[in-house]
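Pilot study result, target chain (165 residues):
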Amino acid sequence: MSTPTTTELRSRMPNPLAFIPEVAEIAEGMHKVFRNGAIPPTTVGLLQLRAGQILGSTYFTIRETGNLRAAGESEERITAVATWRDAPYFTDAERVALELVEAVLTPNPAGERVPDALHVKASAHYDDKALWTLIMAIAHIGFFTPAALIAKPIPGMPPGQNYSE
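Predicted structure:
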């Protein structure tokens, strides 16, 4: 059985910008927020990769893996995101960011998803601007999750070219 190439893959739906161009403004605004310099771009990439893994989104996982590689991240760090708790490759601040995204995206039958102790831990590594930036990086994935899971953009294709016409 051969593996389809990205040129053979099709999305379920056409590019949303043809129908709701306002989404481009929202996306660009969100990108500006988490590119504001308050947190390293690598941290954003790591937490968004972990979000893609948790959500089961091939599109997000491939996109963020590619972004991290392009930023010069090692294969060890990229691969170890799935097992970050046991991996020696992450800073304490990166670990808190990964813990936050997991807490937000994983139901907790025993209580609230982001307990006070986790917020305190995050606040020890990030000031208010940086913490809000992390929150918006997580929100960005949350905002685009329905599109990734329902419309299924083509993995590995750049924005604007990731939907079948």
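One observation from the pilot: Residues 9 and 64 are 19 Å apart (CA to CA). A full batch analysis is planned for the follow-on phase.
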